[in-house]
Amino acid sequence: MAATNHAQAIKQDSQNYLATALLQLLENKDLSDITVTAVVNRAGVSRMAFYRNFTTLTDVLTAYFEPIITAQFDDVLAHVPQNQKLAALGKFFQTLAPTLQLSVDRGFEGVFQQLFEQNMRRFYTVTTAWTDVTATQQKYWTQFMTAGIYRIWREWLLGGQSESLAEIHELIATFQTATMTALKSQSSR
Questions:
Q1: How far is CA 145 from CA 27, 50, 138, in A?
Q2: 58 FRET partner, CA 20 to 30 A, in 16, 28, 157, 181?
Q3: What is the pLDDT of residues 1-13, one digit of tens each?
Q4: Which CATH number does 1-55 carry?
């Protein structure tokens, strides 16, 4: 058992070193210009350690950001009153604005977007009353809203945040309510 715990600790250390090294390299280079060799050299681990843990550099970023983003969504889902959940998500994404900007600038926005959308789907599953909506409608409404909300937050965060957080929250809430009302209206015909 002790050997297994030790091996797990070494694996976790390698993952942390690789993520730290990659993030440091991303400060000055695009993801497409960074090699596994550069990351392992900077991290001080072997290529074998890299490939034992990851297949691609994108996997390193996903492994790094997934628990951070998921934990924030978990906190919103568990600790924020229902009527304040979207505003709480907005505040969370304000704190992620520099990371989102880096992801756009350095070519790994897809990682950020995938994790956001994955968690938004979970958010809607937990927070939305799915009465009078078919499973198909639920699936596509969630996809539609998730993609739209990502684009709204992205535009707001990267566009200088000239509108207030309250305005963005109200806009998203209006879109959600209007599209859900239209969907339910279609179902009742």
A1: 32, 36, 10
A2: 157
A3: 555 875 676 677 7
A4: 1.10.10.60
